[in-house]
């Protein structure tokens, strides 16, 4: 799946095997925190964080339930070509994956 140039105010969850999410390149496709964030991957911090204060991740690559528990291992997911900035959590997190890649990205001004 290709994402065109622009600034997108959202956080993402990729929860399927074999997905490629490709932006137009760092600086061209920018991901910033939304005003109405979706809580994903919350239990994947040690210790767990408070979503309201600092638990919002930019892109989470994991098959998780609504509580943030990993349901299964994801395989062969690739994410590339984004700037992920200003998130109070991690820019890109991919726990519980096998053969996954995040490359040709810029993570800037994220808390973790």
Overview of the molecule:
This protein has 112 residues and is mainly beta. The chain is built from 1 helix and 14 strands. The protein has one helix at 51-54; strands at residues 6-9, 12-14, 20-22, 29-32, 59-61, 63-64, 70-72, 74-75, 78-80, 83-85, 92-93, 97-98, 101-103, 106-108. The strands form 5 sheets. A 4-stranded parallel β-sheet has the order 1-4-10-14, with no helix packed on it. Strands 2-5-11 form a 3-stranded parallel β-sheet, with no helix packed on it. A 3-stranded parallel β-sheet has the order 3-9-13, with no helix packed on it. Strand 6 (63-64) and strand 7 form a beta hairpin. The protein is globular, with a radius of gyration of 13 Å.
What is the number of E strands? Answer: 14
* Total of DSSP H or I helical runs spanning 4+ residues: 1
| C-alpha termini separation | 27 Å
Supply the helix-strand structural class. Answer: mainly beta
Helix and strand run? EEEEHEEEEEEEEEE
Strand content: 35-45%
Q: How would the global form be characterised?
A: globular
Could you report the average pLDDT, rounded to the nearest whole number?
Answer: 85
Strand order of the largest sheet: 1-4-10-14
Which range best describes the helical content: under 10%, 10-25%, 25-40%, 40-55%, 55-70% or over 70%? under 10%
Name the poorly predicted regions: none
Please compute the radius of gyration using only Cα atoms.
13 Å
Main sheet: strands, sense, barrel: 4 strands, parallel
């Amino acid at each position: 799946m290709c994402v065109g140039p622009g600034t997108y105010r959202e956080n993402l969850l990729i929860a399927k095997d074999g997905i490629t999410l490709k932006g137009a390149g760092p600086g061209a496709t920018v991901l910033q925190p939304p005003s109405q964030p979706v809580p994903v991957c919350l239990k994947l911090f040690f210790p767990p964080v408070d979503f309201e204060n600092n638990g919002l991740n930019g892109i989470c690559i994991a098959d998780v339930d609504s509580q943030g528990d990993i349901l299964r291992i994801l395989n062969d997911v690739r994410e590339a070509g984004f700037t992920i900035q200003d998130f109070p959590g991690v820019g890109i997190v991919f726990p519980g994956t096998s053969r996954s890649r995040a490359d040709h990205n810029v993570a800037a001004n994220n808390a973790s």
